[in-house]
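Provenance and format

Records in this collection were gathered into a single text stream. Each protein contributes a sequence line and a token line. The two records reproduced below are adjacent in the stream.
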Amino acid sequence: MFKNIREDDQQRENARKLLEAKIWDKYQFAHTKNKIANTDFLNCFEKSVAEKFLHEKSLRNYVFFGGNGEDSERNILLFYPEKLSLEMVEKNYSKIVSAVRVILPKELHYEHRIYLSGIMKLGVKREKIGDILVQDNGADIIVLNEMAEFLKNSLPELTRFKSAKCDRIDIHQVQLKEKEFEALSVIVSAMRLDNFVAEFARCSRSKAIEILDTQRVFVNDCLETKCSRKINMGDRITVRGKGKFIVEEITHKTRSERLVIRIKKYC
């Protein structure tokens, strides 16, 4: 068991170093060639690693963009030269990212996982795909431009999507969907992160600590491994593989002085 943990730690450390090297290369390219440079899509863990690296190196002239506003779960990191303003960079988003709009027949409705599994079957790497915004009649799949035409043409070749209509659209035409939530209540002994992780993952405190140690927990989109981290009202907690939650309010206390917390879970 300890050997596996050490191996996992080493793999994460190797992945971190590789990501930092890629980010540094993009930064160097942007500032030596005087051109915009971008990474592939980063997940929440990779974005957290990137933000720490950017801060440590005091890098500037960069922006994260995911195409889904502040709710973007996957973002590319763009570096731009001194000669460009952020406003000018924003006008270039369409040259880097677009979307494939999938419209299903009226009788069909697919969940996020169906779209993702279909994309993976096509051999498209996950880092080339951003958020998948599922609607009642289909979805907008945010994608790097280099993969957009392939995805548009190949997705209808899959059995599940053979009756679907697929079009490539500008990133600014993406249909943003208002977030939906499920109301929950949890009971914790104290406003510590490990207590919430145990409730969200439905596991013991010791297992929750393990989850934290494996870098699967984020508070307000920042990686957090400290068990005793104090949680405040309004904090967003993400447990990879379990979901994303907003801590809303202490509704009351139990007879044993435990706290009953109202939670919103992203659907």
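Adjacent record:
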Amino acid sequence: MSDFTGKVAVVTGGTRGIGFATARALREAGATVVLTGRDAETAAKRAQEIDAHGVALDVSDSAAVKDVFKAIAKEHGRIDVLVASAGVLEGGLIGMLTDEHVATTLGTNVAGTIACVQAAARAMMRKRSGSIVLLGSIVGERGNAGQAVYAASKAALSAFAKSAAKELGRSGIRVNAVAPGVIQTDLIAEQSDEVLAKIKDDTALRRLGTADEVAKVIAFLAGDDASFVTGQVLGIDGGLVL
């Protein structure tokens, strides 16, 4: 893993799952880490566990995003890495979707991520360097019944990552995305044993992934070892998509 000593990394949605695992990996690699979550108390508690900084942030509030990122850049003097992990996963058949469901999913996963990239990129442009990694999903690449809006939101992030990479590359900023498969986090807690068994059977490695495995790939993309990698959507799915 690259050495992140002296670098400042912001991880949105960093209080649980892949986000927290990534925040921990970056901190262990020497980065000054600021993790965000919707609840201030939870963010502070999780940050304390890894000697990081915790900040309350609802990424769907664009004004709050601007204020928080300005405060981070002012306090720490720079932002070198953004891992945009904040998102919501709500299922729903197409015929049953509500306006609120659509607005919440797209407002958080797409608009919220874009707002964070905008805010981080402004800080990164001052140093003419930086790395941004977006958390997509295998569902955005292949779709899934009952998750049409979620799939659309993650597919949008893949397209956004590629476009942002082309635009921000001239400022020395790299933008990539990861597309995890089925990962052992609380997001799959409601899945039945039968469903999970079927997924394992369809996966080349015959198992589910872990948050730490995804975090290591994100850290690679965020670090100097991937200095010539941008505009990529990297699958982390154990061979589920082959």
